[in-house]
UniProtKB/TrEMBL annotation:
Catalyzes the interconversion of methylthioribose-1-phosphate (MTR-1-P) into methylthioribulose-1-phosphate (MTRu-1-P). This is Methylthioribose-1-phosphate isomerase. It catalyses: 5-(methylsulfanyl)-alpha-D-ribose 1-phosphate = 5-(methylsulfanyl)-D-ribulose 1-phosphate. The keyword Isomerase applies. Keywords: Amino-acid biosynthesis, Isomerase, Methionine biosynthesis. HAMAP family: Salvage_MtnA (MF_01678). GO terms for molecular function: isomerase activity. Belongs to the EIF-2B alpha/beta/delta subunits family. MtnA subfamily. Its EC number is 5.3.1.23.
Length: 352
């Protein structure tokens, strides 16, 4: 796998005194960083979608904790943890659905609890490790997921799960990159992902950077596309995978999953184990983020809808495990997931 060709974008860069985040609100036409100098700036960047995608927000929060540590004096890790608690809580509250955020901050807290005087280095090592492990997981999942795809297949992905959403390479988009590189994938479709257009603005841009031909489809065109037989696999990421295999992901994933099952296409969910939350029994227990109705009422900042209407804007949905054909993680693949098969791979993994 030629990672120099297929893994060039880095949305999160630690600069020693601040965190540089590629501003995903402005892509694809403006490629510009937001410089975060303290942990509240990182929390705001997560909330406002400067950085987004489950693994990327977890990694950013870990670096946010490092920045918070710059602002305090503490004798050891436990002392630092008590002083950092409010800042860590604010980072954690930035978005509710992606468990990677809670998972990364739980790791930070655990590391601090046992750290001595060198707690600042411990904190930085932890952030670096969370980022490096994510990149390694993505590259491994790329190979595992691509192996499931028969040569000549068409694939459809939703939202953005690429380098922009992770430490690099991507989850579902990593599988697509690997599948294209191995000659297994003949056609790539990306659904636009209303209202924030992660598919249209971000996924298409990433694929173009790699020279991978892609076709954009409207979210409402997906049933018609799949019915026509051009898609063998729908490949998506996840924000949280429950103990029973239910998957929370970008709004619209559930309807893609129903359509795929109805027409005989298969659904692959690709996510690192940091997205698996064995402490949450089923999708009914997941908090689904509701965002500002203004995101639905406007396109590119231009109001499209008459004044006076209400809008309902949940930004994630839950796909029941029964509609999922494979969950690909760096630990291995769970086929036809259910509670027993999830437990066999993840045991009672603490989640958060
Ligand atoms: C590897 S990213 C996986 C998911 O986080 C992704 O599919 C998604 O739903 C992102 O939502 P977003 O609201 O853009 O953060």
């Amino acid at each position: 796998m030629d990672f120099d060709r297929y893994d060039r974008i880095r949305p999160i860069r630690w600069m020693g005194d601040h965190l540089a985040l590629l501003d995903q609100r402005k892509l694809p036409f403006v490629v510009e960083d937001v410089a975060c100098g303290d942990s509240d700036a990182v929390a705001a960047a997560i909330r406002d979608l400067v950085v987004r995608g489950a693994p990327a927000i977890g990694i950013s929060a870990a670096w946010g904790a490092v920045l918070a540590g710059r602002g305090i004096e503490a004798g050891d890790g436990a002392d630092a943890l008590s002083k950092l608690a409010p800042a860590l809580d604010r980072l954690q509250a930035a978005r509710p659905t992606a468990v990677n955020l809670m998972w990364a901050l739980a790791r930070v807290r655990r590391a601090l609890r046992v750290a001595g005087e060198n707690w600042r280095e411990v904190l930085e090592c932890e952030a670096r490790a969370i980022e490096a492990e994510d990149l390694a997981a993505n590259r491994h999942m790329g190979a595992l997921g691509a192996a499931l795809i028969e040569p000549g297949s068409g694939v459809l992905t939703h939202c953005n799960t690429g380098s922009l959403a992770t430490a690099g390479f991507g989850t579902a988009l990593g599988v697509i990159r690997a599948g294209v590189a191995e000659g297994r994938i003949a056609r790539v479709f990306a659904s636009e992902t209303r209202p924030w257009l992660q598919g249209a603005r971000l996924t298409v841009w990433e694929l173009l950077q790699d020279g991978i031909p892609a076709t954009l489809v409207g979210d409402g065109a997906v049933a018609h596309l799949i019915k026509g037989g051009q898609v063998q696999w729908v490949i998506v990421g996840a924000d949280r995978i429950c103990a029973n295999g239910d998957v929370a992901n970008k709004i619209g994933t559930y309807s893609h999953a129903i359509v795929a099952r109805h027409h005989g296409a298969r659904l692959m969910v690709v996510a690192p184990s940091s997205t698996v939350d064995m402490a949450t029994a089923s999708g009914d227990d997941i908090e689904i983020e509701m965002r500002d109705p203004a995101e639905l009422l406007s396109v590119g900042g231009v109001r499209m809808v008459a004044e006076g209407v209400q809008a309902w804007n949940p930004v994630f949905d839950v796909t029941p495990a029964g509609l999922v054909d494979a969950i690909v993680t760096e630990r291995g693949v769970v086929h036809q997931p259910d509670a027993n098969r999830m437990a066999a791979l993840f045991g009672a993994q603490a989640g958060v």
